[in-house]
Write a structure and sequence with these properties.
Strand order of the largest sheet: 3-2-1-6-5-4
Protein name: histidine kinase
Largest sheet: 6 strands, antiparallel
Structural class: alpha+beta
Helix content: 40-55%
Bound molecules: adenosine-5'-triphosphate, magnesium ion
Distance between the termini: 101 Å
Number of helices: 10
Number of strands: 13
Number of domains: 2
Order of helices and strands: HHEHEEHEEEHHEHEEHEEHEEH
Organism: Heliorestis convoluta
EC number: 2.7.13.3
Shape: rod-shaped
Keywords: ATP-binding, Coiled coil, Kinase, Nucleotide-binding, Phosphoprotein, Transferase, Two-component regulatory system
CATH superfamily of the largest domain: GAF domain
Radius of gyration: 49 Å
Pfam family, one: HATPase_c
Amino acid sequence: MKDDNIFKDLTVLYEMALSIGQSLDLEKNCDNFLKILMARKNLSFASVWIREDKIIPQGEKNNLLLTYGKPRYFVRERIINECEQLRDFFQGRKYLPISYDNPYFRHFVHENNIKGGTYVIFPLADLGYLKLYTMQNQLRFFEEREINQLEKVMKKFAISLEGCLSHQKLVIEIAERKKAEQELSTLNETLAEKIEQEVTRSRQKDIILQRHARQAAMGEIINSIAHQWRQPLNSISLAASNILLDLELEEDPEEIKKSCDFILKLTEDMSNTITDFMDFFRHDKEKSEVLIEDIFQDIAGMLQAQLFSHNIMFTWQVEAGLRMVTYKKELQQILLNLITNSIQAFKDRSLLEKRVEARVHKDGSYIIELRDNAGGIPEEIIEKIFNPYFTTKEKGQGTGLGLSICKSIVEDSLRGEISVCNEGEGAFFRIKLPTDRDFLTA
Ligand SMILES: Nc1ncnc2c1ncn2[C@@H]1O[C@H](COP(=O)(O)OP(=O)(O)OP(=O)(O)O)[C@@H](O)[C@H]1O
Ligand SMILES: [Mg+2]
């Protein structure tokens, strides 16, 4: 071989080697290399076929996808099956020249408008194949030395293609990750928005609940005051009528004075009732040690009129001198709610004896039990009675907040537990409160 031929060969080789791997873009990388290869080797068509599983994670190993093909008008198919003949052929061979009309490889080499010439196939490591086409009708298209040189170039080309594929995967991964991050951040934003909305809604609910609870408590005050006042009001009205009668009959002024004193005494009692109730509903902020007996005395006093008018006997059983550290008024409010419920449960029940009984004992913690004989709570609703707004009373008769207020005071303020069941002839409520030491450190 002449020197200038060697020189020409080396130049072409150098030029081709240089053109490989200039770009990480698969198509551009193929284009850079194949343009030069086609020009230098006088080829009419070049295409790169890569196994599907190298491109798509779940791709078929035997499917070859057209990754590059120029000129376009030769391209007939974009996906072909890698036949066994082809695979077997390359066991130990560097390239495969095929006449355009070779029936054995027909399915692999049947581009558009090919009416003569020769195909040359090079394997691209285990990625796939490079398919070249020349119009020349000679199978020994490349000389042995050219094939040896090209083999090295093809290896480099295959490695560069692998680089492109990895890059492509990375780009897709990054895009997917970005998309996922974006979705996540949108999700987080909407989540934050939703949480904000929920918090506001729940705050509004709390405000409404508190307002209703206050109204319910007010309702109970008014109800109790009304009961406490009915009797003295009647007496006042009676005393006033007596005064009028005495005046008309010009009775002894001493009698009139007596009636006036009586009225004054009653109005003073009535005023005290209001003070008692207002004071009772002004919650205490300090924990204090109280005589449990006093708690029940106060409540019995407040509910006296109601209990009396419904003919209900309220009794309590407390160890003499038993004391506890608590928020007295809150505990009283709970008992007031529970006893009021019992009083209401007796409504429309004609019983010979209506009883509400309380018992307190200390068993490490304090156990307060309250039972009535008003018939109990239907089993199908017993689970729900502590829910806010749950009531079986007619509209306007109850808010359904009484027990939910009791539960939240017991749990949040007094750090205890409240439970209910039916026992004997009625409902049985049990409140468990912590020991003084636990309560003081809570
Ligand atoms: N001692 C009881 N016996 C029978 N049923 C009861 C008793 N205590 C409560 N209940 C039932 O539990 C329901 C809920 O009681 P809760 O005190 O929470 O609301 P309410 O009494 O209906 O309404 P409010 O307390 O606002 O007047 C009552 O409607 C009633 O059906
Ligand atoms: Mg109630």
